[in-house]
């Protein structure tokens, strides 16, 4: 039983349309490859799907550009002329825009204003006043931001200074204990005791002070300490 004839028209179902495109693209690519090998022909094949994907096949002995060049030589047509004209038109528009911008910049610098009418000069003046106002507003904003940052730094430094000052005063107000040590053994014991507390200080009398070593001097010195 033979296959039925397929009506050649657009396939409405997008999934079926994509499947048909993929199958027939493979078939036409195979035919192009066979034509290249069997007939030693230069073949270039370009296909763009409905989703915008490009597929290109070119025989290994040539390139797509060379095919286009051969086509132009054979038919006498210039395939790039329209594209070149569009590029030239776009280039001219860009040049005109650049010329106008350069003229506006020079006029804002006080140049090329001899040919301007009163209305044009008035408009230029208003534009410059608005620009100056925006610049001035931005300047004051930057100054305000810098001032706020400086104030915050000063406040932070003042808080740090006050905290250190309070800590210093609290440490000075703490009671400190002193011990007068005469014998070497007692002095070592006091040193060990002092190491256990930060507010105990041991003082040892030096032998080179005889006036403090005798009983009378030691007693008088002890009475003065009392």
Automatic annotation (TrEMBL):
Coiled-coil regions, chain positions: 77-111, 147-174
Keywords recorded for this protein, A-Z: Coiled coil, DNA-binding, Nucleus, Transcription, Transcription regulation
An example molecular function term from Gene Ontology annotations: RNA polymerase II transcription regulatory region sequence-specific DNA binding
UniProt keyword annotation of Transcription present: yes
Domain MADS-box, first and last residues per copy: 1-61
SUPFAM superfamilies linked: SRF-like (SSF55455)
Entry-linked PANTHER family: SERUM RESPONSE FACTOR HOMOLOG
Name of the protein in its database record: MADS domain protein
Originating organism: Actaea vaginata
GN (gene name): AP3-2
């Amino acid at each position: 039983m033979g296959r039925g004839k397929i009506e050649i028209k657009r396939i409405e179902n997008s999934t079926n349309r994509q499947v048909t495109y993929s199958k027939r693209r493979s078939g036409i690519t195979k035919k192009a490859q066979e034509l290249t090998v069997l007939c030693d022909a230069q073949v270039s094949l370009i296909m763009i799907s409905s989703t915008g994907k490009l597929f290109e096949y070119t025989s290994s002995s040539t390139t797509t550009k060379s095919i286009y060049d051969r086509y132009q030589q054979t038919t006498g047509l210039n395939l790039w002329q329209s594209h070149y004209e569009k590029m030239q038109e776009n280039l001219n528009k860009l040049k005109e825009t650049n010329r106008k911008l350069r003229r506006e910049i020079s006029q804002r610098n006080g140049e090329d204003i001899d040919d301007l009418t009163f209305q044009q000069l008035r408009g230029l003046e208003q534009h410059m006043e608005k620009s100056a106002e925006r610049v001035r507003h931005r300047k004051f904003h930057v100054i305000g931001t810098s001032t706020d940052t400086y104030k915050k730094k000063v406040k932070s430094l003042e808080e740090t200074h006050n905290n250190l000052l309070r800590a210093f005063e609290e440490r000075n107000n703490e009671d400190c204990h002193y011990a007068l040590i005469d014998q070497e053994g007692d002095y070592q014991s006091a040193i060990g005791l002092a190491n256990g507390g930060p507010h105990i200080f041991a003082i040892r009398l030096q032998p080179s002070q005889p006036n403090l070593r005798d009983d009378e001097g030691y007693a008088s010195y002890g009475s003065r300490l009392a």
